[in-house]
Amino acid sequence: MDAGVDESGHMTDDADLTEVYSYAAMQAVNEVGTLFFAKDHHRRFIMCSDAFVRLMGYASADQIIGLRDEDISPEYLVDHYRGYDEKVLRRGEHVIDLVELVRNVDGSYDWFVTTKWPIFAGPRIVGLGGITRSLTPRHPAAHEEFPLAAAVELIARDYGRQLTVTELADAVSMSPSYFTRRFKSHFGTTPHRYLRQVRLMAAADLLSTTDMPLTKIARATGHYDQSHMSNEFARERGLTPSSYRRLYQGSARRPASG
């Protein structure tokens, strides 16, 4: 007898029907290669697609189920992931198209854009779902699904230099004013603040994984100088760059460049 189906071919009860639908949905996710994951209210992975399993460097979902980010990612990235997970789990917020670093199997890092949403059981939040995708260049047709994609990719690629709203708007063939409205409507923040968050995450990465001097990190991440980076960092992270480095350096090291 198939699971969830009686001998006459009818579903046995609602629980069995839900299980069958869940299995079918995951099959569909795997067919299209979506990087999907779900966590419970303790932030433990309870479901993930085959593509996400491979991204994390595992052979099967069974190896990830029950783990948390603390078990598979460097501490400084866990701090970032946990902060946004808590917004979803505690406040019911949706995190939409967040640009963040993800560690590859070979130890390198790439920029991904991630969306997370709360999972409810009645009125209670019992977990979160998420989808992430790489920000490597894609076929132009993919931009039809997400009209702001080219601007987000430009931010992730060129955050280390001066970027203006006009340049970002040009990347998606919009006027600066219309682009700003569309951007804020979609992300809930301005292009300038979004760019600032990407720069701060890039700085946090270099502080945690290299011995690069603060002056070089400031230049590499698009800040005017070390003082500017320190002020921005302290305001957003509650720590100076030097304090952040002492706290997280060594959790995942890689050679300094430049």
From TrEMBL:
Family annotation (InterPro entries): AraC_XylS_family_regulators, Homeodomain-like_sf, HTH_AraC, PAS, PAS-like_dom_sf, PAS_4
Pfam families hit by this protein: HTH_18 (PF12833), PAS_4 (PF08448)
SUPFAM superfamilies: Homeodomain-like, PYP-like sensor domain (PAS domain)
Domain HTH araC/xylS-type positions: 149-247
Entry's Gene Ontology molecular function annotations: DNA-binding transcription factor activity; sequence-specific DNA binding
Taxonomic superkingdom: Bacteria
Keyword terms: DNA-binding, Transcription, Transcription regulation
CDD domains: PAS
PANTHER family in the record: HTH-TYPE TRANSCRIPTIONAL ACTIVATOR RHAS, HTH-TYPE TRANSCRIPTIONAL ACTIVATOR RHAS-RELATED
Listed name of the protein: PAS domain S-box-containing protein
